Model the fold of this input.
Amino acid sequence: MYRNHFDGHPTIWASFTDRRLELSTQMNAASKDRDPSSKLDIQVDLIAAAFRAKNDEIARFPADGPMDFLYRRQFILVRDEYLDRVRNLVPEGDQSDGLIDGVTLYSLAGQANVMDAVEQIDQALGVGVATPDHVMSITPVWPCRPAGHRA
Done:
């Protein structure tokens, strides 16, 4: 089915096939390391492996129970107008990159805890000044109701 999209492009098809094989191998390795309780656990393991391959670490929130989101362990996003005040609160960090107008990627040093840093900033400067650098958010699935159906 997918091969039709790559006809005449053997390099693209080979790359696509290699990536599928690589992901399959990683998934098998992840399932051998532990007995995952769900497909979500396997997918999170694959995402974490991809970030580790680029020397980056991710974490899930909350650490236990149903996951709300994944975030990068050493980075927070900070609104630009609060950057100097955040530097005073979290001096071990450093401006890493200006992402888009109004938001800066702020790198936390060493073993700083992202969620603790965000909580500290929320308490001192208000909610919405800083947030974890989200990798993925999880939205609960709600069943659709047929048209005209009332609750």
